[in-house]
Amino acid sequence: MSMKLGFRPVLEISSADMVKQIMKSHDIVFSGRPHLVSQQRLSYNGLDVTFSSYGNKWREMRKICIIRLFSQKQVNRSFIPVCKDEVSRMIKKIARDASLSRITNLSEMVVSFTSNTIYRVAFGKRCEDDGTIRSRFFDLMHETQALAGGFFVEDYLPWLRWIDRVSGMSGRLEKIFRDLDSFYQELIEEHLDSNRPKSMQGDILDYLLGLKREGSSSVDLTLEHIKAILMNILAGGTDTGSATIVWAITALMKNPLIMRKAQAEIRQQLAGKKELTDEDDIVKLPYLRAVIKETFRLHPPAPLLAPRETIEKCSINSYEIQRGTLVYIKSWAIARDPKIWRNPDEFVPERFLDSEIDVRGHHPEVIPFGIGRRGCPAMLMGMAEVELGLANLLYAFDWKLPPAMKEENIDFDGLPGLTMHKKSALCAVAKPSIVTGM
């Protein structure tokens, strides 16, 4: 569907076939990014990977991320050990709730797990170890997500930018930018201290500062480049993983037979172990992976993929698309298209057991990490976080609804934003499984 928003031509894509045609014949044409007010400001005028314009500089920055920061080797060496440790901490906290017969706020637990994991990988320390840092970090990320996906009149009617000032949106954007910049700068100064803790040696920020110092990158890295990349990592890494795990548990609570089937598979495969150890275990759990795929389909973390912009004129199915067209790919609509999916609104992991469809950007039917050249460079890290987190929660505990709550009362309302979180917190009663002996 095409339309005009102010001076911008806009194309909405809600068809997997259309996405497939674009990726096959016009991927480069559709690889631009629009210069939207909030995204440009938060990315230091496009010095990051997510919101930068398509071109040589973007290619080199993406190469740094894919090859040096988020390769399978780096994920296995740097991310998985931290993720496993944070999983273990989360399981112990839930076990304490269970021992005291307390209801567990799973939404809070999972956000804490993903936030601490990403914070440690990026900065070499846990945000939760300091209550002030934790509160500040969560507030920053919440406001960043709200504004990165917020509506600014200037994006569509530049001559009415004064409305953004009057509404307070411009002021909020400038404040969060200054607060984020100060936050990044403090962390950078900590990492430049030669007496910094050993845990801060070898994390992502330390590595990026090393590239800048040595000049070993094809990009002339500045501190603003580094801060922009940190924004991508923190905003994307803490939000999408936690949202997906919470949606998965919510769907399983609504479908207890499916939950028991997933738990039986995990416990049979891992009997005798205290927790999952590595990705080798996940490969042997096809039903769990089907549950995760179905969660990504029914509850994509980004219902609308980050907007693209055509960098030149093209034609698809005899339809002419102008250069500079703003393009929105509606992953939510594609994932619920009855032409593709039987009973699209039902949670049915079995649909993926004999399917070649994956979620890594090769099949437009399910694209939680984007697709094509603009796919998420940290996809391997994101998948590992979701797989290890969800598998352990299902392995270690049996889950029941709080007293007086019934399956039909479970809601699936989402919050608006770049990432769709569950509107109300997911609370449940955990009972340690006999298999794990937690």
UniProtKB/TrEMBL annotation:
One GO molecular-function annotation for this sequence? oxidoreductase activity, acting on paired donors, with incorporation or reduction of molecular oxygen
Is Oxidoreductase one of the keywords? yes
Give a single Pfam family match: p450
Could you say which protein family the record assigns here?
Belongs to the cytochrome P450 family.
Q: Where in the cell does this protein reside?
A: Membrane
Q: Which CDD domains match?
A: CYP71-like
- What is the native source organism of this protein? Sesamum angustifolium
State the name under which the record lists this protein: Cytochrome
Q: What is its main location?
A: membrane
Q: Where are the transmembrane segments?
A: none
GO CC annotations?
Answer: membrane
Residues engaged in binding heme:
376
What are the protein's UniProt keywords? Heme, Iron, Membrane, Metal-binding, Monooxygenase, Oxidoreductase, Transmembrane, Transmembrane helix
Q: How would you describe this protein's topology in the membrane?
A: Single-pass membrane protein
Name the cofactor(s): heme
InterPro entries registered for this protein in UniProt: Cyt_P450, Cyt_P450_CS, Cyt_P450_E_grp-I, Cyt_P450_sf
